[in-house]
C-alpha cells in the first residue's frame, strides 16, 4: 500500500460516516469481509433513509406534481423552464460573448466548464437573471435530498464521435451509493444523435434484486479491474436491468429550454455520439455527506465562496497541481458556446 494511504489511516473509520465511496482508497469500505457482513448495504440503506427525511423537509418548496414525478422516475423534465424572452437573451449572450473557461478530456469527449461566478458575469443581465432564479437550485436540493449550495456553471460537451476512444460516461452507472443530483438546462434541442442523457426510470429506488447485486459487487469492488467500479461508481450492462426489476433506459430527447434534474444514484449514462456533436447547457450539481442529520449550514454558503465556486475550485486545483497532483481540468482562453475545444 502506498505511504500516503497509511497517513490517511486514522480517517478510514470516520469516512464510513461520510460520502467517501472508493473501495480502493479506504480498506474498510473495500473490505470483502465487512461487505459480506453487510457494511456497504448498511451505508446504502441508512443514507437512503436519511435522504428521505431531509427530502420531506425540502419538499415544501416544490410543486406536488413535480414531487410525484420524481418519486416515480428519479428525474424531472420541465419544458419551457425559463420565460421565452429570458431564454433567448441568455442564449444570445452566450453565443456572442465569451466566459472564463476550463476544459477536460475523457476519451474522445471534451467537456468545457464556463464560470457563472458573480464577478465574472457582472453587467451581463441575462446571466445575472439566470443565477438569481432559484428553480434549478431548489430542484437540485430536493432531488439530492440535502440542503446546501449547488455548483452551477455553463457546460459544453464536445463529442468527437470516435468509438475507438470510448468515454467512461457512456456506460450505464450510478455516481455513488447515495442520493446526489445533477441538472441540465439545455441551450439547444437535444436529438437522438446528439448523445442525450440516458436514465433508467425508477432506478433511484432500490429493489431487492438491486441490493443483492450491490452486495455482490461490493465484496469484490476493491479488486475490480474497472477503476470506476473500484472507485465506487458501479457500472451495469443494459442486459442486466430487467433482472434487477428495472425498465430500459429513457433518452432525454428534449427541445431547447428544457430543464432535466436527475438523482444520479440511479443508473444513467451519456449516450455515445456517432458523429461529432456539440451541446451546451447550464449545468448544476449537488452532493453532500449523506449522513448529515440537517439540511442547513453548508460551507459553500459562506461569504467569499457563495457566487464564486468556479473560481475557488480552479484555485484549489491550481494549488494541487503545484503540489504534483495535477487535476483533469485545464484553463483555456475565454470561450463562446460555439467555440472549438483547445485541448
Ligand atoms: Fe454519472
Q: What's a concise summary of this model?
A:
The protein has 343 residues and is of the alpha+beta class. It has 12 helices and 11 strands. It binds fe (ii) ion.
Fold blueprint:
Blueprint: H1 3-7, H2 11-15, H3 32-36, H4 39-58, H5 64-73, E1 75-78, H6 84-96, E2 99-106, E3 109-114, H7 118-121, H8 125-132, H9 135-144, E4 151-159, E5 181-186, E6 197-199, H10 208-220, H11 227-230, E7 250-251, E8 259-263, E9 268-270, E10 277-286, H12 309-322, E11 330-335
Antiparallel strand pairs: 1-8, 2-3, 2-11, 3-4, 4-10, 5-8, 5-10, 6-7, 6-9
Helix pairs in contact: 4-9, 6-8
The protein binds fe (ii) ion.
The site of fe (ii) ion has 4 residues, from loops.
Q: What's the end-to-end separation, in Å?
A: 34 Å
CATH class category label? Mainly Beta
Q: Mean of residue pLDDT? A: 92
- Give the second-level CATH assignment, the architecture: Sandwich
- Please, how many helices? 12
Binned strand content: 15-25%
CATH topology: Jelly Rolls
Uncertain segments: none
What portion of residues is helical? 25-40%
Question: How many domains make up the 3D coordinates?
Answer: 1
CATH homology superfamily: q2cbj1_9rhob like domain
| Widest sheet: strand ordering | 1-8-5-10-4-3-2-11
Q: What series of H and E elements makes up the topology?
A: HHHHHEHEEHHHEEEHHEEEEHE
Choose one word for the global shape: globular
Bound molecules: fe (ii) ion
From the alpha-carbon coordinates, what is the Rg to the nearest angstrom? 20 Å
Q: Largest sheet, described in full?
A: 8 strands, antiparallel
Q: Give the total of beta strands.
A: 11
Helix and strand content put the structural class at: alpha+beta
Amino acid at each position: 500500500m502506498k505511504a500516503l494511504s497509511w497517513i490517511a489511516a486514522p480517517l478510514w473509520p470516520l469516512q464510513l460516516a461520510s460520502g467517501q465511496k472508493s473501495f480502493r482508497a479506504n480498506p474498510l469500505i473495500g473490505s470483502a469481509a465487512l461487505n459480506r457482513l453487510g457494511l456497504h448495504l448498511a451505508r446504502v440503506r441508512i443514507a437512503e433513509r436519511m435522504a428521505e427525511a431531509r427530502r420531506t423537509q425540502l419538499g415544501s418548496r416544490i410543486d406536488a406534481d413535480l414531487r410525484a414525478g420524481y418519486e416515480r422516475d428519479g428525474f424531472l423534465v420541465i419544458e419551457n423552464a425559463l420565460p421565452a424572452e429570458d431564454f433567448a437573451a441568455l442564449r444570445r449572450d452566450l453565443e456572442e460573448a465569451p466566459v472564463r473557461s476550463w476544459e477536460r478530456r475523457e476519451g474522445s469527449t471534451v467537456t468545457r466548464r464556463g464560470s457563472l461566478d458573480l464577478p465574472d458575469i457582472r453587467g451581463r443581465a441575462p446571466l445575472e437573471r439566470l443565477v438569481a432564479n432559484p428553480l434549478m437550485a431548489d430542484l437540485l436540493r430536493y432531488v439530492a435530498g440535502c440542503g446546501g449550495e449547488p455548483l452551477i456553471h455553463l457546460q459544453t460537451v464536445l463529442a468527437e464521435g470516435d468509438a475507438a476512444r470510448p468515454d467512461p460516461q457512456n456506460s450505464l452507472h450510478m455516481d455513488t451509493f447515495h442520493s446526489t443530483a445533477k441538472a441540465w438546462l439545455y441551450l439547444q434541442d437535444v436529438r437522438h444523435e446528439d448523445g442525450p442523457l440516458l436514465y433508467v426510470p425508477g432506478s433511484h429506488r432500490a429493489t431487492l434484486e438491486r441490493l443483492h447485486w450491490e452486495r455482490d459487487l461490493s465484496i469484490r469492488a476493491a479488486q475490480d479491474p474497472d477503476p470506476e467500479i473500484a472507485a465506487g461508481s458501479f457500472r451495469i450492462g443494459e442486459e442486466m436491468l430487467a433482472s434487477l426489476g428495472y425498465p430500459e433506459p429513457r433518452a432525454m430527447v428534449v427541445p431547447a429550454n428544457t430543464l432535466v434534474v436527475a438523482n444520479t444514484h440511479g443508473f444513467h449514462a451519456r449516450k455515445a455520439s456517432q458523429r461529432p456533436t456539440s451541446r451546451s447547457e447550464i449545468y448544476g450539481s449537488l452532493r453532500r455527506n449523506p449522513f448529515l442529520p440537517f439540511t442547513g449550514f453548508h460551507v459553500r454558503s459562506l461569504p467569499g465562496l457563495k457566487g464564486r465556486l468556479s473560481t475557488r475550485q480552479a484555485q484549489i486545483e491550481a494549488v494541487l497541481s503545484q503540489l504534483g497532483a495535477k487535476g483533469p481540468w485545464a484553463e483555456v482562453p475565454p470561450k463562446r458556446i460555439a467555440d472549438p475545444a483547445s485541448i
